[in-house]
Amino acid sequence: MKHIFFCFAFVCSLLLPAACSRAETTETPQAVLTVMTHDSFAVSEEVVKIFEEQYDVTLVFLKSGDTGAALNRAILTRNNPEADVFYGVDNTFLSRAVQEGIFEPYKPSTLADIPEEFTAGLAGMVTPVDFADVCINYDKAWFAERGLAVPKSLADLAKTAYKGEPGNGLLVVENPATSSPGLAFLLTTIAEYGEAGYLDYWRSLKQNGVVVVNDWETAYYTNFSASSGRGLQPMVVSYATSPAAEVVFAAEPLSDAPTASITGENTCFRQVEYAGILKGTTQLELAQRFIDFMLSPVFQEDLPLQMFVYPVNPAADLPEIFTKYAARAEEPARLDPVLISKNREEWIAAWSRVMLP
Fold first, then answer.
1. Which residue of 96, 100, 182, 263 is surrounded by the most CB atoms within 10 Å?
2. Structure pTM?
3. What's domain 133-269+331-355's superfamily in CATH?
4. With 50 as the cut, is the pLDDT of residue 81 above it?
């Protein structure tokens, strides 16, 4: 028995160093950082690789529906979070996200470089990343061919000059209950006319034949005359950056954008998107570094032609095609995010009673 034990020990003495050597040369599994986003999120592979290589991490993007659906998912899974970072909550949903307590406080050092209009009142819970103005876009050729002046204000839209057939007017809007830009436009009318007057304004739009559809894709690609060439509405609720997208994605090169935006005072609503670290993350330090990275020029300069939004970092350079064709409202409509959070569902319900069959 002793002889057998000695042989076994001898063999093990030969094998153990090799086993240890293999263990020492085995690479440590790469860390994974999961970022929950809305479905419209996009970032170039080159930018992703920069972060992954710098921190030896794999980035996973978990697309989770529109902004509201993604936020609901983050809230419902907060006790067992599916991601480390959440990107895409905007100022129409921000108060709800903060009230639900899903974020781990973090304040990047570079936040001091970001304009106060984007950082005020955040208390270190989330970090602003980008913004865009929801405005009315119009078909330039349609108005030029008819010699009709483009409306300059919300009040103009209710004038008889812009009246169409019942249910088939000149403007198509999205249902605020099912569409983010639709909600933003509803908030624009509330900012302009107040809670006491916005429904009367919508009644006047209804009399002018305003068309309501469920989502932006239908409004823009089916109803809007400039995009499909077959739509009946020469005006659509979209983004002030949409004309730049028309040029970038045109099947044939364009010398000018076929659309433009109405950006007069209180005709647009500024949507700001934020990112935050989800409570319960097991990758806190990496999550903090990714928040930092989202404010860096390399990430910020990737945003305009990926998601057609403006970077919040003023040091980020904008591509020429973006500066030439995208617009930015000088005096957008504004509402307190707390007021929006408190009244959003009631406003939508009241709008639905007036506007929907």
1. 182
2. 0.84
3. Periplasmic binding protein-like II (3.40.190.10)
4. yes
